[in-house]
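[agent] plan:
  1. take the single chain provided in the ticket
  2. run structure prediction with default settings
  3. attach structure tokens to the ticket
  4. add a short note for the reviewer (M.T.)
[agent] executing step 1
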Amino acid sequence: MEMIAERGLEQLTMAALGREVGMSSGHLLYYFGSKDELLLRTLEWSEGRLGAERGRLLARPEPARARLEAYVDLYVPDGHRDPHWILWLEVWNRSLNADEQGRDRQAAIEGAWHRDLVALLAEGVSRGEFRAVDADRFAARLRALLDGFSIHVAIGLRGTGRDQVLAHAREFLDEALGADA
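[agent] step 2 finished; step 3 output follows
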């Protein structure tokens, strides 16, 4: 993951990766078959770790708003060249030429984030913590907003730092879900 984030997939060679992890490039190709498969498996591994962390934070005995802010905090990159987000940028870039199975795997990862957010929003609405919204539609919009801002943070776009993005997200949630949210 670090090598992909540091060099990008195009600049990464299986030989260099093999030297880094103590395997031959032939062994890497045997296990992964291609750089695209290596990328997807690395993303799935990274998302597995984030999914476990997301599950823990969503299970906390806190109000829905506090857990929603924790979800957003986990979603937004830590900063420029965040390795997890660089993986996503590489996957999205290669999605144009990906096969159906690759796109399905990507959709499954994104779907987990979406389902967790929908459930959290529905809980907040049912408890009266949030204004009544269609949880699925709201989740799609919020994730699109977070994706856009997160790309700016990950690529290091000037004037778009993590703290600014989190402030924008809090403001949006206040306005969209109610000031008491």
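[agent] step 4 note for reviewer: The CA atoms of residues 76 and 157 lie 14 Å apart.
[agent] ticket updated
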